[in-house]
Amino acid sequence: MTEPLSPVSRLREEFSEKQALFNAQPGIIRRFIEAQARQIAEALIEHQPQVRFSLPDRIIAELPQINQPATITLPAASREQSVGGFRKRLLHQDVRDELRRRLNELEQSPDHAISTSAGLLRYAAAIHLVHNMLPSGRTVTYQPENDEEIPTIPTEDLEPESAITQASDAIAEEGKADEGRGDLQVPFVPAARRFYLPQWVSFDDSGKLLVGSVKEAESHVASMERYVTILHAASSLAPYIIADEEYQKKRYGMLGQLVNQGRALARYKTQDIIHTIKERANSGNLNRGLSLSLPYYNDQELKMDLTTFEVIPAGRIMFVPAFVVRAAREEAAKRVQDTRFSPSTRKHLMAELQMLEDAFFQPD
After folding, report:
1. Strand duo 184-187 + 290-298: pairing
2. Cα separation values, 136 from 61, 139, 185, 247, 249, Å
3. What is the 3-state secondary structure of 91-151?
4. 3-state secondary structure at position 3
5. What mean pLDDT, rounded, does the chain reach?
6. Is the dihedral of CA 147, 151, 153, 154 positive or negative?
7. Residues 239-265, buried b or exposed e (16+ Cβ, 10 A)?
8. Rounded distance, CA 243 to CA 229, Å?
9. Across the chain, which distance is largest between two alpha carbons, in Å?
10. Does residue 74 contact residue 87 with C-beta atoms inside 8 Å?
11. Residue 176 has what pLDDT?
12. Where does residue 67 fall: left (phi above 0), alpha (psi -120 to 50 degrees), or beta otherwise?
């Protein structure tokens, strides 16, 4: 008796079947499907109010009756598809949800040509999201910090530096005066080259800012979040895409980098908050109350969040460093059992509260 396939094995099998079916199509049909899939993928990511796409006029598929590949034609009336529109937008209906529903309806069609074509479109859209909309990066290995679930610490071994700078090691720049003379390769620092996409690395492992400003670092984190959002859109559209080797490589490489750099940005901002408090305290500008919004990186939601708490109530109360210590300890006590956080996010936030406490603690 054959053992049932595991969920992961089923996804691998489904991915292989879709891949083989797509590759079995004639070149002209593949290119047509890819063009329509691009429109679907971009609508999912760009929040377009409306998307139009077409099913191919014919495909190669196995007919259930004869159990062998054959060319089957689609009904002309079913080929043109439109989702969304101004009226739906007024009703606040998300075109992405409607697009997924339409593809589901088409795949459930009793017409074998329509259902197979819709499945090919879904496959091609997921492939476009993963392979074409996202840059590839370096081969990297991360290790988890202590017993965390997400590996975020790059291993120490770097590839040996070459006399020839590779594109993945550098930013290509061309100034106006150099137009036509080729790209100038500006190598990344070693700390950045340890990550999947060095161009979005803003902090080294000691928390030193590697870019020109915090705004630039925020922009890099936003770019990485968008990268992961596109991967999530692909797996939501076609869950079997997780069996794709390129998907796994990109998800692993970017997820570790994003969480690492998001936490580093939060710590940097926390240090800036500490510096600002001390500066304002020295100038006597904190005697009318103080509330803090402490940034931390939520590795469950994959976004920067804030925890807000009161240090000194509003009023004429003289600032004393011990107030910050007490407030940080009280906030830590509230968060230590907060089930809304993953264990790693809670640990990261607790470490930032400890930074705050240590900065203002004055032993007797």
Report:
1. unpaired
2. 32, 9, 18, 10, 9
3. CCCCHHHHHHHHHHHHHCCCCHHHHHHHHHHHHHHHHHHHHHCCCCCCCCCEECCCCCCCC
4. coil
5. 88
6. positive
7. ebbbbbeebebbbbbbbbbbbbbbbbb
8. 18
9. 88
10. no
11. 44
12. left
| CA–CA gap between residue 242 and residue 8 (Å, rounded) | 9
Classify residue 320 by burial, with Cβ atoms within 10 Å: 0-12, 13-18, 19+.
middle
Are the CB atoms for 172 and 184 separated by under 8 Å? yes
pTM beyond cutoff 0.85:
yes
Rounded Cα–Cα distance for residues 57 and 193 (Å)? 48
Per-residue pLDDT tens over the stretch 117-148: 999 999 999 999 999 999 999 999 999 988 89
Per-residue pLDDT tens over the stretch 289-323: 899 999 999 999 999 999 999 999 887 788 899 99
Tell me the three state secondary structure of residue 184: strand
The region of weakest confidence among 153-157, 190-194, 274-278 is 153-157
Instruction: Provide CB contacts within 8 A for 196, sequence distance 6+.
Output: 137, 138, 140, 250, 253, 254, 256, 257
> Mind listing the pLDDT tens digit for each residue in 248-275?
999 999 999 999 999 999 999 999 999 9
Phi, psi of 2 (to 5 degrees): -75, 130
Torsion of CA 95, 230, 11, 113, to 10 degrees: 40
Q: What is the DSSP letter of 314?
A: S
pLDDT for residue 90 is more than 50: no
